[in-house]
Design a protein that fits this description.
With 229 residues, the protein is of the alpha/beta class. It contains eight helices and nine strands. The two termini are 38 Å apart. The mean pLDDT is 91.
Amino acid sequence: MSSKRFKELPKNTRESNSENIEKILPIIKKNCTTKFDESIDLSFQINNKQKKSEINLRTVINMPGGTGKKVKVAVVCEETKQKDAKDSGADIVGGDDLIEKIKGGYLDFDKLICTSSMMIKLSKLGKVLGPKGLMPNPKLGTVTNDVKKAVKDSKSGQVEIRNDKDGNIGVAIGKKSFSDENLIKNFSAIIEALEKEKSNITVKGDLIKTSFITSTMGVSYKVKLNKNI
């Protein structure tokens, strides 16, 4: 049964014409009628059913407007790099000792960064880290010898986008409390990243079939993309 609050929200918005992000944001924020700071979320349906193979997108984006989230970062590295990791803001830093701790089930962190030489040891924990989406990956910038940059990127507003098996991508561009300017900056960064990913793959037709925007407890609206992706 829908709540009284939800019943008061606009109806059939998914059937409306698509609009530019600048026009939709004030409406989305007006629909944020809960007492908490709702997330502003994008969802895309990609054209992943190709003749030869399915498309699998996975990349990271530095969000210029921030994310509004605190990210707990762990770093596995050599002793010579541990001070750099700590000075850059890493919450948990270690070498073989941290690997053993993770092996025992310790996963109290949101992102794991690892240097190239230590990755040989850490890769054996794929069954522990993989299902949680925590396995470091060179493409995502989490297997690197520049731990300073990796930690700062993770802390300052970096998000991962990837599609599921049905071709859906979900990503937050910020919170209701964010200025429209910062939300638009984040939206643009995501669109640019998707455009770049399209140029690196073979896809027949547009990559993005549909795109919607909503808030955590709001209703969805079609959002117009300024570029053909």
